[in-house]
Design a protein that fits this description.
Blueprint: E1 2-6, H1 15-28, E2 32-41, H2 43-54, E3 62-66, E4 72-80, H3 81-90, H4 95-110, H5 118-133
Parallel strand pairs: 1-2, 2-4
Antiparallel strand pairs: 3-4
Helix pairs in contact: 3-4, 4-5
Length: 137
């Protein structure tokens, strides 16, 4: 089950389309869909989570709490809409494309992909691009 929660004035248009897409991402990695909760928020909200749970006093676009067990993908994915907007401007891309990248990024972490090394980051970026392409299929 995929759910979308809002702690800011932002809301996804056509949640069903995004729900189907996230399911496709999980299926494409030969995983099983568990409970995925997306929480869209602002910088301040996510900063508090970052400090409280990770002891990081920095802004970030995403924090994910992974409850995956084996192939059953589950977790809470917090996304700062403000940070995604700023990143989209910095990377000269559309907001919605950057949002899809971040949404896919959280799921890919649950599937076992990392991004701490250059090699891992390159693979993660490649996977993100593949998953974004699934959106309109």
């Amino acid at each position: 089950m995929i759910s979308f929660n809002y702690e800011t004035d932002f809301e996804l248009e056509n949640e069903t389309l995004y729900e189907e897409w996230v399911s496709k991402i999980i299926d494409s990695e030969d995983k099983t869909e568990g409970e995925i909760n997306y929480i869209f928020c602002d910088d301040e909200y996510l900063l508090q989570k970052n400090i409280e749970f990770l002891n990081h006093d920095t802004l970030t676009d995403i924090i994910s709490f992974d409850y995956t067990m084996g192939n059953l993908i589950s977790g809470d994915i917090f996304i700062s809409v403000e940070r995604v907007k700023d990143n989209a401007a910095d990377f000269n891309t559309e907001f919605i494309e950057e949002l899809k990248r971040v949404m896919a990024h959280g799921i890919l972490h649950y599937c076992g992909y990392k991004d701490k090394t250059e090699e891992d980051s390159a693979l993660m970026r490649d996977k993100e691009n593949q998953k974004i392409n699934l959106f309109n299929q």
